Amino acid sequence: MTLHAGHIGLNVTDLDRSLAFYRDVLGFAVLAEGKEDGDRRYAFLGDGGDHPVLTLWQQAQGPYGGDRAGLHHLAFAADSVEQVERYETALKAYGAEFAYEGVVAHREGAASGGIFFHDPDGTRLEISVPSGAEHAPAPHAEAPTCGFF
Asked: How far apart are CA 10 and CA 13, in angstroms?
């Protein structure tokens, strides 16, 4: 038996703000939205298919905390470095906070790399490609770049 990722669920503090980010900036399609008892709202987001890739749950009381057990970061795969750079431009226009300037390599001498940034609640995100970042700088010489933001 082999497992593969089905979807990722994120707790958010403000569903409308997070929907604007994931839908309008990153391009996810809203598959469904709903509301449970009280103010607990949710949205299922997809990437063009019928199945959710990401679910947002408005139930967090505060921002993401990288010092607690759980999610370290969420990584998305792009088709090309040029596509990563287009996302970078959209994220900068949105005002997203970046961990590094521009596309960076995953480690010294790696062909893979991408951009590292934060969503509106501070969740650490990455958009990367497996190749095409050969000439990008590596913020950390020996260790994986994604481990240090």
From this structure: 10
